[in-house]
């Protein structure tokens, strides 16, 4: 470790700027070697905020592996390393809570923070482990008193609080080794589980004993009281041996068309939601850490009002009023059914192998049309081919499975391979009873042309333009469900598997990266985005940011594509 400057020079600078104008803080940017007793690290002040109400300053600390002493076994492959990075991020956050005073004046004065902390374990750039050492990226609100630099307060942050946070959060010798192992091994098991699904011809697995319900509709932490643990019916029980947890049992959902039925408030949507999130790894204690879904599972829902560009929704929607083309369908304002059709087609185009659909968030006329309605409204007056007529063909002809929550119509009995009834939060296998009530299954629906796949399409330059006003690039992320990209306001609030604001931030940067590298000779959006995802895997998230930041999390291709598909302005080709 070769510090450019010693920590004493930072001390001098902070004392000298105490009481001066806030801009005087600019002088502290740079690198400093810290050595306080046993604690040795390199501090880098990467960006100094312009005023106390601006975004806090960005700092990073780097520890040599001889200091951090992270066990080789917990970082020997990518899966373990990412899990350990996540663990360290959480340890740092806890240490911040313990040692950082917080309020030291106006604006964000005195705050130290690190990105992350939700129920999922994501690839991030908040903590990065390499063979030589570990880097953690934090933000720090440089303290102000009446808009003047409070250098003495900053001194306490850098010389007292920060070293304590680093010592408690990054030195493995100070961490709970058993907990770290449990964290890493649990994540590894989830990966194994997800791979095992494919080998077994399953699309999802929910372990017995899992706790699925959440604390509230806006709180993703587990519900604590009166939870009925998950228990699979015998006929659908599968056994798997995980590398760390050993033998576990649970519900295996086979490929094909699966229906979840049951009375209202019996836990149908809770189960589906767990499957939606099963594409991600969860922290130990979450309750869903042994729930896994194919990583290509996509929740699709109705999303009226969204824009659609050049999407072939003809498998579902045809002969619209005024003879509008549905093979290359565009609209500024989709209806419930057209939006749900487009969401499905776009998901398939991005490589979805499992569709997750809940009646609660679907357009009724997209899901079903009963016989009496068919008699009243003649076929050529009804543009919609409901999903129930296409869902089997999606599986038999295209290998795309579905899990559909449907408590309100028996029409799906005809096309379902598996029917699970939720009964007071308990799943029961009612496939045989449902089939007894069904009409014979038809693999390809009579009188319908075969399901046509989406042709290649690309967004034009206007859609990908990141400029706003005088700034050539302006991208910001006010919340997880909202991305402001150039002049575009991209509403992602209905993209339900987008779960972390860090993913939204990364999506903004990745769109801009796509625009610069792969859009000009774009043959297909999805192909271009695959290259962006490959670059993310090869070079890491830092590839997309001009500055050193620690607040990015890796999105999936599906959510990245979803953002571009939802840009309102601009022509596509
Ligand atoms: P449905 O979709 O069948 O109408 P929900 O999945 O919305 O039902 O669940 C209804 C309520 O029951 C929710 O408040 C949910 O948190 C709760 N719940 C779901 N599963 C369980 C469970 N296993 N134990 C306890 N409460 C549960
Ligand atoms: Mg429901």
What is this structure's SSE topology?
Elements: H1 7-17, E1 30-36, E2 39-47, E3 57-64, H2 65-68, H3 78-99, E4 112-113, E5 120-121, E6 127-129, E7 133-140, E8 144-145, E9 148-149, H4 151-170, H5 177-200, E10 202-207, E11 214-216, E12 219-222, E13 237-242, E14 246-254, E15 257-261, H6 268-277, E16 281-282, E17 291-293, E18 297-299, E19 308-311, E20 329-331, H7 336-349, E21 354-358, H8 364-367, H9 371-376, H10 391-398, E22 401-405, E23 418-423, E24 426-429, H11 431-436, H12 461-464, E25 475-479, E26 482-485, E27 488-491, H13 501-517, H14 525-539, H15 557-565
Adenosine-5'-diphosphate is lined by residues 212-213, 223, 226-228, 262, 264-270, 422, 425.
Note down, in words, how this protein is organized.
With 573 residues, the chain is an alpha+beta fold. The chain folds into 3 domains: 3-175, no CATH class; 180-455, Rossmann fold; 475-565, no CATH class. It contains 15 helices and 27 strands. The mean pLDDT is 95. The structure holds adenosine-5'-diphosphate and magnesium ion (MG). Residues 212-213, 223, 226-228, 262, 264-270, 422, 425 line the site of adenosine-5'-diphosphate.
Name its key features.
single chain, 573 residues, alpha+beta, Rossmann fold, six-stranded mixed β-sheet, binds adenosine-5'-diphosphate, binds magnesium ion
Instruction: Tell me the CATH superfamily of the largest domain.
Output: P-loop containing nucleotide triphosphate hydrolases
Work out the oligomeric state of the chains in this entry: single chain
Class by SSE composition: alpha+beta
Distance between the termini: 52 Å
Helix content: 25-40%
Give the CATH topology of the largest domain: Rossmann fold
> CATH architecture of the largest domain, please?
3-Layer(aba) Sandwich
What is the average per-residue confidence, as pLDDT, rounded to a whole number? 95
Largest β-sheet summary: 6 strands, antiparallel
Shape label:
globular
Strand fraction equals 15-25%
Which stretches of 5+ consecutive residues score pLDDT under 50? none
Number of helices: 15
